[in-house]
Amino acid sequence: QVQLVESGGGLVQAGGSLRLSCAASGRTFSGGAMGWFRQAPGQVREFVASIRWIFGVTTYADSVKGRFTISGDNNKNTLYLQMNNLKPEDTAVYYCAATTTGGGEYNYWGQGTQVTVSS
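User: That's the sequence. What structure does it adopt?
Assistant: Structure tokens below.
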């Protein structure tokens, strides 16, 4: 059974940094893509960043460009999100997601990890 487990969330002050991790098990996503999404209270889940493993292509939402970096381990089943210069508007539950096809929909999801940025 495929499972994605996020970790690394917490409480930080504005301007601080945090690194999220996502461990995937049950299968490899080396032929597809993995990404991060977030959802603030009362808001729709939004895209944050992704990496397409075969080409090493990374994509970022405009709101996090220059501040967040997505990366992974060599096995391509572990995902990271380095978050720098955090802002209060970054506060949300962050979800790890994966797809077996690089251009396909994200059909595997983790349970999320809370990130809270205080001003």
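The chain has a mean pLDDT of 94.
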